[in-house]
Amino acid sequence: MAEQELTLEKTEKANDPNEVVIEIKNLKKSFGNKDVLKDINLDVHRGENVVVLGRSGQGKSVTIQCIVGMLVPDGGTLRVFGDDVVDLGEKELKELRMKIGFLFQSGALYDSMTVRENLEFPLTRVLKVTDQSELDQRVEEILTSVGLADAADKMPSDLSGGMRKRAGLARTLIIKPEIMLYDEPTTGLDPITSREISQLILEMQKKYKTTSVIITHDMECARITADRVVIMNEGEYIAEGTFEEMLKSDNELAKSFFKDIS
Ligand SMILES: Nc1ncnc2c1ncn2[C@@H]1O[C@H](COP(=O)(O)OP(=O)(O)OP(=O)(O)O)[C@@H](O)[C@H]1O
Ligand SMILES: [Mg+2]
């Protein structure tokens, strides 16, 4: 009970837009002799959507895996809500993960469960909700938010790719995380569905005041969702600005990402 109160207190007081929610300094990570992250520096502020652009294999997914403590960095510091993630014990890491929603690149749902069961799972397992009427109400609320109100009793195999992404997003959002990490949320979707998912990410930011890191190759997604864009190359973040600023940037790599945009 005391633990729960502490979490609530933190959540409620935390509406300061200048607060740095994720603070990354000189982050390094190598695999064998491959230096993937060389010197990553990034502050993400409360309520902000930061889009990370970068070519394949540059370490974008590795960066967010470090943020949730799935990978341990080799150097530098990584603070989330002011706590150094590397120093957290198992219990504290678990508590931190309850505040972070992670939409994986694959966006997996459990295929043997209905959409409703998929959504109830994090509520019963992570938040220990047992009251059926609360479960029903939260499932309905989130499915309505992502435009899937009629799909609660469908199996994932009966959903289209876009609907599966929405359902994956709903499952991540149902625990109302303060931070959302999106790893290529629109990959594999047609342009119209991609745009809908991007709009949804924006709506979720407004509705739940989430702080988000969005990794994407989809420039339309970046345009729709980004308060700020950072470009990652060879283990460093090399340029940043608003979407409009990046559009006019002299940086050669920025130019190559934005060259087809008018
Ligand atoms: N657990 C791991 N063990 C060993 N190498 C890894 C591991 N995770 C990532 N890598 C390597 O780190 C590099 C960066 O991978 P990462 O998945 O972060 O790239 P990315 O920028 O997300 O690329 P993409 O745009 O293709 O998703 C790759 O060379 C990858 O092979
Ligand atoms: Mg990746």
From TrEMBL:
> Which UniProt key words apply to this protein?
ATP-binding, Nucleotide-binding, Transport
Report if keyword Disulfide bond is assigned.
no
Enumerate the PROSITE patterns for this protein. Answer: ABC_TRANSPORTER_1, ABC_TRANSPORTER_2
Which domain of life does the UniProt lineage start with?
Bacteria
Pfam families given in the database record: ABC_tran
Per the record's keyword annotation, is ATP-binding included, yes or no? Answer: yes
Which SMART domains does this UniProt record tie to the protein?
Answer: AAA (SM00382)
SUPFAM superfamilies found in the cross-reference section: P-loop containing nucleoside triphosphate hydrolases
GO molecular function: any one? ATP binding
Domain (ABC transporter) spans 22-259
Tell me the PANTHER family matching this sequence. Answer: INTERMEMBRANE PHOSPHOLIPID TRANSPORT SYSTEM ATP-BINDING PROTEIN MLAF, PROTEIN TRIGALACTOSYLDIACYLGLYCEROL 3, CHLOROPLASTIC
The name on file for this protein is ABC transporter ATP-binding protein
